[in-house]
Design goal:
Blueprint: H1 24-36, H2 40-59
Helix pairs in contact: 1-2
């Protein structure tokens, strides 16, 4: 092996990196948005749509 070859390493199994001053839920949402490949705002809209749909299926009416 020469100096220019990259040694393959397994991905880290660490939990989400903490962001100073941010709640655990915010950090989770940010990392989920990155994993989904969308911005944080778009991800939160998708998350809200899922919650609205679940509420509609459960109660048969839209939330106000």
């Amino acid at each position: 092996m020469n100096d220019y070859e990259v040694v393959p390493r397994p991905k880290s199994r660490k939990a989400l990196t903490k962001i100073p001053g941010a709640s655990a839920q915010l950090v989770k949402d940010i990392y989920d948005a990155i994993a989904a490949g969308v911005s944080y705002g778009v991800y939160m809209g998708m998350k809200q749509d899922k919650l609205e749909e679940a509420y509609y299926k459960k109660y048969g009416k839209r939330r106000r």
